[in-house]
Specification:
7 strands; EC 2.7.10.2; globular; alpha/beta; Rossmann fold; seven-stranded mixed beta sheet; Bact_polysacc_biosynth/exp
C-alpha cells in the first residue's frame, strides 16, 4: 500500500474521490436508518483493497463535517500509519494494555476532522486482545468522542480476529476484488460473519476494469 501523498499525485484522483463520495453517501443513509455510528471494513483475503477503502471512506466522512476516528485493528499487517504518514507508533494496543488514554493514541492526520489510531507495537498474541473486554470498551468509549468510528479489520479467511470484531461492531462493510476473490471465498467469509451474527451493511467490488471513455467502473491498485 502506497502513501496518501502518492495517491494524491495520481491524475485520476477526482474519479476515485467521486466514487468514494458515492459510497459514503449510500453508507450515510444506511447508517442513519439503523442508528449505526461504528463499523468495520474487511475482506476475504489480503491485498483486496480494504485498508485503502477504509482510509478514503473515513476521509469523506471527515470532509462532510463528521468527527471521525479510523482505527487500525489489523495487528498482523498494519498499513494505515504508513499510508497516512503518521510518525508516532502508539495506538490501539497501547490503549488496550491500559498504558495510554484515548486522546493520547488518536493521532492527527491530513484532515482536522479525521484522527487515526495506529496499531501500536503489535503483541505476540493479538487475537487475545481483540477478544477482550478492553476492545469492547475501546469501541464504546470512542463512540462517545466521535461521530463515526471506522475500523480497518484483518481479512476474514486467514485470521480469526475479524470474526470476533464483527460481533463488537454495529456493522460490517465487505470488500472483494473482481476476478481475484473467488466465489467460494466470499461465501465462506459471509458464513463466518453469519455465525458471528454480524450486521453486513454493504459491499465494495474493487478492481473492475475502467474504460477511459466512460469511467463508469471502479478501479484502484493499492
Amino acid at each position: 500500500m502506497k502513501t496518501y501523498h502518492d495517491f494524491k499525485q495520481n491524475k485520476e484522483v477526482p474519479f476515485y474521490k467521486e466514487k468514494f463520495n458515492s459510497i459514503q453517501t449510500n453508507l450515510q443513509f444506511m447508517l442513519k436508518k439503523q442508528n449505526i455510528r461504528n463499523f468495520m471494513i474487511t475482506s476475504a483475503n489480503m491485498s483486496e483493497g480494504k485498508s485503502f477503502a477504509s482510509a478514503n471512506i473515513a476521509e469523506v466522512f471527515a470532509e462532510k463535517g463528521n468527527k471521525t476516528l479510523l482505527i487500525d485493528a489489523d495487528f498482523h499487517r498494519p498499513s494505515l500509519r504508513k499510508y497516512m504518514q503518521v510518525s508516532e507508533n502508539v495506538g490501539t494496543i497501547d490503549y488496550l494494555m491500559g498504558d495510554l488514554a484515548l486522546e493520547d493514541v488518536c493521532q492527527d492526520t491530513y484532515h482536522p476532522n479525521l484522527k487515526l489510531m495506529p496499531t501500536g507495537i503489535a503483541p505476540p498474541n493479538p487475537s487475545e486482545w481483540v477478544d477482550s473486554v478492553e476492545m469492547k470498551q475501546l469501541i464504546e468509549t470512542a463512540k462517545q468522542s466521535f461521530d463515526y468510528v471506522i475500523i480497518d479489520a484483518p481479512p476474514l479467511l486467514p485470521i480469526t480476529d475479524s470474526r470476533i470484531l464483527s460481533s463488537l461492531c454495529d456493522g460490517v462493510l465487505f470488500v472483494a476484488f473482481a476476478k481475484k476473490t473467488k466465489r467460494n471465498e466470499i461465501k465462506q467469509a459471509m458464513r463466518y460473519l453469519e455465525i458471528a451474527d454480524a450486521n453486513v451493511i454493504g459491499g465494495i467490488l474493487n478492481g473492475v476494469a475502467v474504460s477511459k471513455n466512460d469511467r463508469k467502473g471502479y478501479r484502484y491498485k493499492y
